[in-house]
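Dear Dr. L.,

I hope this message finds you well. Following up on our conversation about the binding site, I have prepared a predicted three-dimensional model of the protein together with magnesium ion. For your records, I am including the exact sequence and ligand specification that went into the calculation, followed by the structure tokens. Please feel free to forward this to your student if that is useful.
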Amino acid sequence: MPRIVTLTLNPTVDKSTTADHIMPDQKIRCAAPKFEPGGGGINVSRALRRLGSESVAVFPAGGPTGQRLQELLSQEQLQFRAVPTQADTRENFIVVDSSSSQQYRFGMPGTELRPEEQLLVLEQLKELATGAEFLVISGSLPPGVEPQLLARVVRAAKNRGVKVVADTSGPALQAVLQEGVYLAKPNVGELSKLAGTDELDNDAMTQAARQLVQEGKAEILAVSLGPQGACLITRDQVDHVPAPAVKRRSTVGAGDSMVAGLVHGLSTGLSLPEVIRLGVACGSAATMNPGTELFRKPDVDRLYQWLRQTLPAKVA
Ligand SMILES: Nc1ncnc2c1ncn2[C@@H]1O[C@H](COP(=O)(O)OP(=O)(O)OP(=O)(O)O)[C@@H](O)[C@H]1O
Ligand SMILES: [Mg+2]
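The resulting structure of the complex is given below.
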């Protein structure tokens, strides 16, 4: 059984297509749709695979779309445990207007997860946590799920010696941090909300992150800063890594790709300065591809080698 488990409480199948010209009141002819699995933890699992790390993805799935989600993951030979749900898994819709190259993303509400289904997810995670090294909690909460479910998930994982990595936002992020995680990856907006301010400059960002570490909410914080890269903060270090300049096509999936890079780095024994550079390399490589596509491994390798040149001297 893989030593990395990912959790996606709000998965989706992304249906994407292109149309010549999007106009109101007219029939819009679309190209044959493409279907891709989606949702935070599922994307992290797919990205981990590209880096050479196996994981098992846990998610609820129901109805024909839930079935399709599982088929798509099987085609990618990804390991997963799907918890059956009464409600249908949602399908998001993405259409690119080829005349303007603009992308329209329609997100459907998440699929309701009943209390008994939530317990099944928890049971599944408890079973898989035995012997696992990392649990990655990523993405939003679907309707009907209280953030306290995630607090229970974190407690169960920690009791079994599993290191929790969290990439979520709002009350869900607050609930997991209250329990204390190994690593959290907020972006700077999510960190600002936690700190209760509208905007954070570099110093205030470092200070807010430091405070969370000191309060025991996370051992490591990787704060992502979009085109400015990321900053890794622990009790005794602050390491700011600028993003390499790349030709940006779509930033969709950059955050999930970064989390995969961080977890792959940690699980293969890289040093923390190397881990954050690998995370930035994966995030930036993901922005080089159009649409919902994740990164290409050769792009990650090239960007990582470049970023390693800025390793602090003591680790280089
Ligand atoms: N415009 C960009 N140019 C280069 N790298 C980028 C750009 N945008 C994002 N990245 C890379 O991706 C990483 C994660 O991006 P970001 O901070 O936007 O995460 P996020 O807000 O969590 O993203 P998501 O919307 O996927 O959840 C950054 O740390 C950086 O390495
Ligand atoms: Mg994010």
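In brief: The chain is about 40% helix and 20% strand.

With kind regards,
A. P.
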